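Researcher: Structure for this, please.
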Amino acid sequence: MAKRALITGITGQDGSYLAEFLLSRGYQVHGIIRRASTFNTRRIDHIYQDPHNPEASLVLHYGDLSSSEQLTNLIYNIQPEEIYHLGAQSHVRVSFEMPEYTGNITALGTTRLLEAIRRSGIKTHFYQASSSEMFGNAPAPQNENTPFQPRSPYGAAKVYAYWITVNYREAYRLFCCNGVLFNHESPRRGETFVTRKITRAVAHILAGKQKKLFLGNLESKRDWGYAPEYVEAMWRMLQQERPDDYVLGTGEPHSVKEFLAAAFGYVGLDWKEWVEMDPKYLRPTEVDLLIADTAKARQKLSWEPKIRFEELVRIMIDADMEAEGLVPVGEGVAILRSRFPDWHQWGNAVTLAVQSAQGQALE
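Model: Predicted structure, token format:
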């Protein structure tokens, strides 16, 4: 029988790529989605399967990380061999405005899942999506031994989720892993995150729909990678003989200002003519520099990213340009085709990236 996997946050960037990846490996994939009055499944619409089909390999369930009873019932009924916990309130700036909600969903949601696993008695491998925001202003580069110094309610909630995962692993001998992922982007990134906000603005400016882009701190440096590569590393963690925690990133820091220069420069524009600073986008406490030390992941998971910074920017710009009906420059498309010749296993990366960007642009 096919392996069963359960994904929280399946409608998000990482969840959609992970669902594609697992389906390509013959899994039966179950995803938890939140009930809403409008459709919120645009990132997985291309892999949707009729629930009336008894052989459907993608099954969606309504659920919420705030409900222990519901999570327990789902886990007991599905009996998944693997659980990927990606769901969270994941926007750092928003976490300052909604700290209690962020703690309830991002921190306690993890506890509810782990307790559901423990009480159900199922044998499963559990992946917790941890974040580089946990490191805060800890000295860079950061690895698995770097002490956490979170600088936001989101970062603090993720630190709680990290340690409760470790605690359940040690206390109850559960197979639990933390993946401490540094920033990872794609054309499916939410429009309120700075990278997608920039690439979408470039396309809108070229299309005559936008005159200015307003941003906050331009000096912050992040380690930006390509999201589809990171979901494979999640899967590799759960295939190991013993559970452990891993840092994932590229090891290359770049500032928001550098991202602007690469994005606008790719289409022949000077970002300084289009970008203005708005204090409302500044965080009360800022994280200045995040760089991943991925030696452990390279050695134990045989994982190393293929897509680098400027290539990532071009991939995202091309997708957003085509979503606006513009002719893409094309280098991003060429990069995907050359670096991932067997991408048909996950579906056509270029087409799906554009379809996802179009779907988000219409909302």
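Researcher: Any notable elements?
Model: The longest strand covers residues 125-131. The chain has twelve helices and 13 strands.
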